[in-house]
Each structure stands twice: as C-alpha cells, then as structure tokens.
Design brief:
255 residues, mainly beta, four-stranded antiparallel beta sheet, 2 helices, 15 strands, 39% strand, globular, binds calcium ion
Amino acid sequence: MPTKPSLVAIALLSATTLTQADTAAYVFGHGTFGTPVDGTLAAIGDFDNDGRLDLVGVDAVTSTVHIELGQVGGDFLPTPIPTVLDDGTAPVAATPADLDADGNLDLVVVDFECTPNADCGPGSVLLLFGLGDGTFEVGPKLRTAPVPIEAAVADLDADGLLDIAVATAGSNILSDAPGFVTVIANRGNRDFKGVGDFAAGNGARGVRAAQVDDDGVLDLVVPQSPSLSNDAIAWLPGIGASRRRPGGRARRRAY
Ligand SMILES: [Ca+2]
Ligand SMILES: [Ca+2]
Ligand SMILES: [Ca+2]
Ligand SMILES: [Ca+2]
C-alpha cells in the first residue's frame, strides 16, 4: 500500500511545482545528505564553485576532513569527499577563506591535540588549499599558542592579504590559565608567518575580527567562558601587525 504523504509534503506540493519524486528530499524541510560519517559539522562554503553551498565535516579520531557537495534542490552528493590528514592531526574546527586568492575556497583547520587536564604545549593550525572540486592540497602546519579552539580569517594589517587569528584556551583547557590569540600574517604565495601570541584573558573560546572602535583598523573580539572569566569578552584593539608586540598586554573590557 503506498505511503500516505505527510501534511508537510502536501503543503510543499501545493506551494511549488515539485514533482512527487522531488518531494522525498523536501519532506520535513530537509535535504538528502550523503552517507553519514563521524565527526562534526565545522563550516559551510562553496568548495567546487558551482554556486551551491557545501558542508565541511571534521573528525579528530580519523584525522579526516570531509566535504559534502551541495546539489540541485538542497541535496548533497551521496558520498562525502574525504581529505585524510597525517596521523596525529586532530581537526576539531575549520574556517573557510580563499587564503591564496586563486578563486578556490581554502580551509584553516584547527588541530587540537591535547587531552583535558593535561598541560599542553604549543598547538597548530593546518592549511588546506582548495582545488575547486571539493579536494585539497595539504599546506603548512603553523604553530599557535597551546590549545587552539577556533580560527578567524581577515585582513588584519590591511595589506590586501587575508591573515589568520587563532583563539587558544591556554595551557590547560579546564583551568584558568590565560588564553591567547595567535596572529599569523599572510605574506603572499602561500607563505605565512607567526606575528605573535596576544593575551586574551581566561577562558578564551573563540575569536572574531570586527571593527569595534571605528579607527579603520580591524580589531579582534574574543568570547570567554563565563566559568573561567569575570569578563564576557576580550577586546584586542587592532594597531597594525607591525606595531603589535608579541605577548603584549591587551586592553580588555566587559560588555
Ligand atoms: Ca558547491
Ligand atoms: Ca584558494
Ligand atoms: Ca593582511
Ligand atoms: Ca579598530
């Protein structure tokens, strides 16, 4: 006996010109996704330049980044495209941006290799340069302060090249060890160089580049974990990379 269409499917049919075959992908408002893979949804962007958004998944256990390519109608290709990283690389977050300005989206992958309650050494981010078809060329692994959490990409020194800021939680993710933002400058031709680690208060758990004080220079905003900090947020006023002193004390204020 044929299954009775749901009310949602009927509503969609009445509102659009979808055929019965199309509705399978739209019942309850969801598209059809590829074969499930372990990991976490980390980012969204168009990685094959077809005008449709694709999904980025990261799996720290298998050291893999997956791309689910978006298709017509909100569906995704049945099989996600894996990029397998070196053993020991533990991707936990990814930020999309065209770092080398070749027209293909790239990824800054946060590599978090520290267990809770352990005192951790420096962390890293790994650059993946997009080839425009959902695959990547593995680029350099760049040092950060301990326990990287999240990366932001913006032109912090206004030279026309996208730079990287990485929020780090400090040497122990569960302690009140001070966090930092590691700033990495883009020098062009896929050449990146660390500028320094800037104090970002206790419990740093992310970073955004934004214009906070209208001085024309991008600033960094760092949300903080309430359980580890008296402030809700740290503000690192941008003064231009060449004038920043690594380890210099950042101005902070609570919002
Ligand atoms: Ca796409
Ligand atoms: Ca690129
Ligand atoms: Ca720049
Ligand atoms: Ca500013």
